[in-house]
Amino acid sequence: MSSKDSSLKSTIAVSLTNYLDAGAIVAGASGLTLWQQYLGLTEIHLGWLNFISANCLGAAIGSIIGGFLADKYGRKFIFTYNLLVYMTGVLLVMFSVNFPMLLAGFLITGISVGAGVPASWTYISESSEVNNRGRNICISQMSWGFGPMCILLFGMLFAPGGYLFGWVESIAHMFGGADMSQEAVNAFSSRIVFLTLFIVAFIAWCLQRGLQESAEFTAQKASNQKQPGLLDNIKLLFTNKVAVRTVIFLACIYLTWNLVASVMGFFQPHIYETAGGVTNEEANWMNCIQWAIIVGVTFILSYFIDKVSHRFVYVLGLLVAISAWMVIVTIGVNGKVGLWLFAILWGIQSGLAVQIFYALWGSELFPAKFRAGAQGLMFFIVRGLSAAWGLVFTYIYGENGEGFTVAAYCMIALLVISLIVGAIGCPNTRGKSLEQITRERYGDNY
Predict the structure, then answer these.
(1) What is the pLDDT of residues 286-304, one digit of tens each?
(2) Please, how many CA atoms are within 13 Å of residue 100, restricted to the half-sphere of its CB?
(3) Global pTM value
(4) Contacts of 217 (CB under 8 A, 6+ apart)
(5) How far apart are CA 413 and CA 406, in angstroms?
């Protein structure tokens, strides 16, 4: 097997982590109402579930832990154990009969998601050939798109009124008896959606256990008689001026973009229904089609990203993103034309997303000894602040979308910041090996 085929195979195996990340976010969001009705939860309960989930605090905590563990014990260490934690969290959700079980399941799943992301992006870059690094990161991003698309489809098929809900009812009564309440039966549709995540997680765990350790990590470990501890790596990260500037740059472009993207990821169907005035089924189908556009655009980009200017693609993606939100403040989304134009433009920009370049540059611009830890730290900052921003957004947006125009101007301002900072600071790394990039930025001591 050629090295190109080998890196593609390992990329696909590791990219399943991103499917599970995005899938957990969408599965949690899509089933909230069903769990609320079954367990009698209040809005405060739902707020806590969102706050500690894979979309927010749970992932933030996991990322900073997993990142530095990957630098200390290896990328394969994370792949060997982390998805066992994920499956435990998913099982807790599947068998939840009260709020504490559901909360614990969301938290454990979120922590696992966070722990896996920096290790997976780092491993993909370190195992890629120089001229395929961008392609492999795009494949990883495609997996992030497949997750929501598949989970949305499952959710619509299994949900009350869906084509397969009769099968869900049969399964529910088989396990819970004929006298189950309708709310308990409806919750089974969410349990089955999480079951699909458990199956994918098990397949991914089997594949990832067979991966070889990153050659870059192995070489870095062999070059030192005494390996630095976790606190040593944190100290190295914060005392190196180049590393600190890089953290600020990457956190800035990713945070400003992700504050917009995280809101769209969690609240998008709700926005389509309240501001756009469409039905829940229409909103879900629009969201699903949008994710298909994202996957398609990213697939096309994977063929060109290692051959064209990164600055050009980065700027193009953000210009499309800003154009999408300009639709809100000009045409509006009360009609189908404006709503579909917004959905299509946002899908295109997501296929050229800042996250692709954050993942690529985040694994290129740091030396191997604290590469995953640096990414984990930035992911911690971004997901943590995104959790707080989600609360602020709901206040600006209003109960029925009356503040959507004001929210749109806020989104445009954030995207403009990401555009300007990224365009100015875009690094020249295309076509260079990770070792060459490290020597140019940090010298020969790293």
Answers:
(1) 888 888 999 999 999 999 9
(2) 0
(3) 0.84
(4) 74, 75, 126, 368
(5) 11
